[in-house]
Amino acid sequence: MFKFLKILIRNIFQGPATEAFPLAPAPTPDRFRGRVSINPDLCVGCGICKHVCTGGAINISPSDDKTGYHYTVWYNSCCLCGSCRYYCPTNAISIVNNWHNSHFQEEKYKMAETHFIPYMHCEGCGAPMRVLPPHIAAKIYAHSPVDVNKIIKLCPSCRQIATAEQQGELHESKPE
Ligand code: SF4
Ligand code: SF4
Fold this sequence. Notes:
Blueprint: H1 2-14, E1 35-38, H2 48-52, E2 58-62, E3 68-74, H3 83-87, E4 93-96, E5 112-118, E6 120-121, E7 128-129, H4 134-140, H5 148-151, H6 156-173
Antiparallel strand pairs: 1-4, 2-3, 3-5, 6-7
Bound molecules: iron/sulfur cluster (2 copies).
One iron/sulfur cluster binds near residues 38 and 88.
């Protein structure tokens, strides 16, 4: 009896051992995989995430007027494997700890993150393109003397030419 009373008094002072959810927010670890999230500013539309997606949860399709592309990730199909985040070359994808994904069956196609991501125009030839994120350009050209700020707004073809030209100019200007 004394043992029981001891446990009872201890539990009264400690409070409930279970979470109060849904009456209060459930504590969620920061790195918990709740849902995939995209940073449209960093996406260059390469399509690698769609290619590696285990659940077929990602779709990237050009807009009808060809001014950009629609990016969709369906929470319903995503198995949170993390492949898209791992392979995205620009770190545009993260997995956030928001796990509030419950929904009715008729809402399943609405459970998605969608973005319209517009194209810019290449400053060299005017072709539609996405700007290379500066932190990625800085990594790619870390050992090259080219001016990164001049080439990030160029399409891959113009970038190749500009890089070769800049390197050629620097080479020619070096004292013999
Ligand atoms: S892999 Fe990254 S940069 Fe490429 S389309 Fe997907 S989100 Fe965009
Ligand atoms: S976490 Fe896996 S299943 Fe989910 S969108 Fe990314 S690649 Fe697809």
